[in-house]
Amino acid sequence: MAGPKIIVGVTGGIACYKAVSLVSALKQKNFEAQVVMTENATRLVAPVTFRAVSGQPVCAEQFASGGDPVPHIGLVERAALYVVAPATANTIAKLAGGLADNILTASFLAARCPKIIVPAMNTAMWENSLTQENISRLKKHGCLAVEPDAGYLACGVFGAGRYPATSKILQEIENALGKTRPLSGKKIVITGGGTREPLDPVRVITNVSSGKMGAALRDAAEKAGAEVVYIDAGAENARSLKKRIAAEFDGADALIMAAAVSDYKPASVRTDKIKSGADKLTIELARTEDLLKYFAGKKKKQYIVGFALESLNLLKNASAKLRSKNLDLVVANDISALNSDTAQITLLAKDGRAETFDRLSKPKAAEKIIERVCRDIG
Description:
This protein is 36% helix and 24% strand. By secondary structure, the protein is an alpha/beta fold.
């Protein structure tokens, strides 16, 4: 399972071939490395080289035909960190000015994650006051910079501006991530989507669930540094979902049950397809096992998060669920959130704390939930 997503921006300096080693090192450390190249960088190192090393398609065009219409936004949605290595004087000037004239500068501007630049250039360009002012401006806005080494440069002179060792860049990346990854070293099991209880070989009883919240929680937990096991309940029934959770539960620090597990299943499953000729069909249903209550009863160190989707008496029913199932946290959300891109949530903790948030996008709501998990177990 790949770790946090690192965007590696590669600009058109002669040192860009050294970024291949950086991408390789990130992969060896189990990061997901996504390479973004400027047009000039592609003239020095073929994108296929970075694709082979990273295992990911390389982004080098801002408006690629047939792809994402806004690729600079999609690129950075799950990014834990953005590093530009090497960063030329030209690109540094663009970034400092907030320009977005290519896929690298546009995605860098759109990214909300920590950012690192790795300057590499001729000594005179590095020491130029304009370059230093641009770097200072980037630092003022929260960007980190890895100081270049002094040494023999491609232009034939000896001085500052040399691309630093890969190990030095890696250390800066890990330091930056350590400050923004409070769940580092924690294993989080997250379920999402709706289960499917078979009625016959072609029909199922299911819950309406887009799975958007589960996926958003997965992304937020990964960004916080957790080792995430994500289980898509859309391919499971309650019984098989229980087995998959049980296989991961003992080693988990938290279980977040965002999946909509069917409360009932057919009492018997037909082995042949039920004919559709009858005007009415009576199906006997049996109660499925309450997985949330089951795993909450098995917890030792595990922090258990449940969801309460209600159409009436939301907070009252959510509070009752919190107590009756021995949960650590319940996310109460109105039924209007069903299949929506937004949610209005209240977080109810067993110690009586309650936080209500106005309507948020599901990724933002997921961040609030993970922030609470971080505070409680991080």
